[in-house]
Each structure stands twice: as structure tokens, then as C-alpha cells.
Predict the structure.
Amino acid sequence: MAKPAVTSIPASDKAAALALTPVSRETEERLDRYVELLLQWQAKTNLVAPSTLPQLWTRHIADSLQLLDLAPAATRWLDFGSGGGFPGVVLACALAERDGASIRLVERNAKKAAFLREALRVTGGAGRVILADIGDYVDSLREPIDCVTARAVAPLHMLLGYAEPLVRGGAMALFLKGQDVESELTEATKYWKIAPRLFPSRTPGEGWIVALDAIDRC
């Protein structure tokens, strides 16, 4: 028997998330609209793991928001494989308050790209959606990027391949990773020369943020 669709998130989860990653009232309202839309679409399109919905704010939104403090001066953001909008749409909601700031959400799945466009529309988030493969878009990009992000998209060694041209051009890379980060780093160093900085996630679990300012081929 199918489980009933989740139509609301516990207020305690939202309160816990905003205690970890405080935002303005305006950003909170944008995020509320995003959560409402995501729950509507989740009923027919799998945007996030259903088991994580009761902790949507702490597991996904706060996890995304914490990246902002690691690149406080960045205005030109790019998110690889935005999927259900983490971290891309969440960052777009917060970046709407920074003059001139925006984020490009790169997504190759047309249905998810349609969701992302609607999410930016209803929230007023500062961003735009790019329907494309990550590698193809990076190859075509000519404008500089300040910060590139990714979450639950690909193994680290693949992300480094996508990000290398952007980081060479001056971008910082911030990749959200789980408890297997050390094994991913070990695999990545077979192909890349990197000096990563690791930041433990503020959110529950064993997540990490991998920050990189330089990526070179071995």
C-alpha cells in the first residue's frame, strides 16, 4: 500500500534549521513558498528521498544555506545538477537580497528543470535554469564564476573534472559530501592535485563540505 503524500513539514524541523542557519524574514518567506511547491511536485515527481521529507528543513535547506558563509563575497554562482533545488534554489532565495547576485542552475532532466524554473518564479529567487549537461555547459561558458556548488550529483573526482576550468578561472568550489568523503578524496587524488579544506556540516548526520581554490591534473 502506498504511503500518503507528505503535505507539511513539522514546525520543529523548520525552527531547528533556522537556528542552525538564520535568514531574514524575506528569505524565510521565499523558502516557505519553495517548500510548499516542492511538496506539491513531490507527489508526482521524485525530487528528494521521501524518507527525508519530515526533516526537509534540516536535512536539505539548512545544509544548502550553510554554503553562503563560506563564500560571503561571491555574487556569480553556478550549481551543478540542481535536481530538486538543493542547494541551487535555496541559495537563489538567499541571494535575492544581495545586490547583483544570482545563481545558474544546471540540470539535464527536463522535468526537473521545469520544476526549478517554477521554483524560481514563485519564490522570486535570484537565478536562472540551464537545461544542459554539466560538461557541455561548462565548455560553452565564457563568463567568470565566483563559486561553483554541487550536492548529491556525482563522485568527487568527476565533479573536479567539471569544475577545473571554472576554478582555474578564479572560482571557489564548494561540494557537499557525506560520510564517505575520505574515500572520495582518496579516489580523486589518483587523478587530481588538490589541497581541499574540509568543513563539518552544521546539520545532523556526518556530512562535510569540500572547499577547493585550486584543481590541477596529475
